[in-house]
Amino acid sequence: HKKDFSPDYLPHSLDKALRCFILIKTIRLLRGQVNKHNTMMINVSRFTDVQNKLAIPVSEKIKSIVSAIKGYSQLSSDEAASNIEMKILRLIWIEEFQNTEFEWITIQRKLIDSIQGIEVIAVNSISQERLNYDQYESGRTVIAIGGLVLSRGLTLEGLTVSYFARNSIMYDTLMQMGRWFGYRPGHAELCRIFMTDEAIGWYSYITEATN
User: Measuring CA to CA, how many Å separate 148 from each of 11, 56, 151, 196?
Assistant: First the structure.
């Protein structure tokens, strides 16, 4: 896309990634991983204007999910499923996390805690937001949207979901971005990476070359 591109809606994959992020935090809380940082990274454009614009539909989707959780999560699973946002959350749990140690109703009831303090911020050279974790002793829950700033040298604490569609075949750039896939003690199997088939091919290639 060009720098004047306006992302007016979320693709299905990004909608799913956002829901995975909420579900992963919920499971972490149930495992006793409280007061921990939880971060989702969205890296799909090098243009700061596009990053800032994308924060708007992402925020709107999070508000919609949060509203549904507040209104329906404490009901029975059948009653909660009457809400489309709750229904989709359950379907994604079945698809991605059903093999974890918790039943859906346990997840559903805990969602109300996992949505506390979710922030959507654009992290780039012109945004006022900074990805600072030090001031959040009880843990920060943040969805960070960015480009070059996220790609180079920035620490993403408690990163559980990575969503990116950046094009690069440069070895050093790929290795820099590869640090997103780091070890996550106690929840490594929950982490999710959303990327294109082409990017998967690049990482397979550099992993083979490194080995």
Answer: 22, 20, 5, 18
